[in-house]
Amino acid sequence: MLSTIPSVMYALSDNVTPQEALSGIFGSVSLATWIFLLVPQLILNYKTGRADGISLAFLTVWLIGDITNLSGAVWADLVPTVIALAIYFCFADVVLISQCVYYNHINSRRRHDSVISVGSEQEPLLTRRRSSDTLGLPGSHRRRSSARSGTSQRSDSLAKILEEDDSESGNSWVRNSLSILGVMLVGTAGWAVAWQAGVWRPSPVGDVPSVANETAFGAKILGYTSAVCYLGARIPQIVKNYRDKSCEGLALLFFILSLMGNLTYGASILCHSLEKDYVLTNLPWLIGSLGTIAEDAIIFMQFRIYTPKQSTSAITE
């Protein structure tokens, strides 16, 4: 990564302004962020073998937003990299939705089978337990004492679990921080390589008005539709978290990367130009990216509020 520093300094000092360099770097970091966005949630679902923490309505509306975004990009004849990224988004959405549907179906069938088996075996066991309690058979005191010892053992086990959760929580923050730093370095290095290879060149601001006028009206409608979908997609997830009073099953890094991707994407647009025609041309994408930051902030608050409070006094009792 040290080799990227001279490249950046060279770019800033020759044929490109700092404003354009920042626009390119932010855009490249945003691209790297979106590529790795769904990976943390996919890994978490695979490790836990469940996906009931994430709202399927959230993913479905997001997929609709990506489909309309792809259609608008093709209609407006945007650059191939934008179209390729939109195709990747749709593919990744389908993979995550398929994974969630699979785990939800498997776990639902397991719960149904377990309820049937427990219901058929529990009735005679409860009858025998009640009769032994009323008769006061020898050994009942031993069973009660063993129950007490079992309770203390469970308390010790709970304490160990909470200690492991503490260490896991600390490790997860370290992993998340390193992941964010890695994505930023990859994005910056990618921009530097693209600049040196001649793949990336600053877009002339003077051509913006003609581009704005030539953009198809239907493409603009699709762009605004995708922005509305992106804005509304997180609402089902926020409602689900509120009803469950939990964020269990959600990958925090997934939403951190989403926040970082939206911030860097909006920054790349605004660093390029603040001219009225240019901003209006990119307004749907600005609304879709910067508008979701507030909703991501709500989800971060839910992560904080719904994190189980670990009370050592309750354990010792």
TrEMBL record:
Entries under InterPro entries matching the protein: LAAT-1 (IPR051415), PQ-loop_rpt (IPR006603)
Membrane topology: Multi-pass membrane protein
Pfam annotation, one family: PQ-loop
Record bears the keyword Transmembrane: yes
UniProt entry keywords in alphabetical sequence: Membrane, Transmembrane, Transmembrane helix
Record family assignment: Belongs to the laat-1 family.
Name of this protein: Putative vacuolar amino acid transporter
Annotated source species: Lachnellula suecica
Lineage: Eukaryota, Fungi, Dikarya, Ascomycota, Pezizomycotina
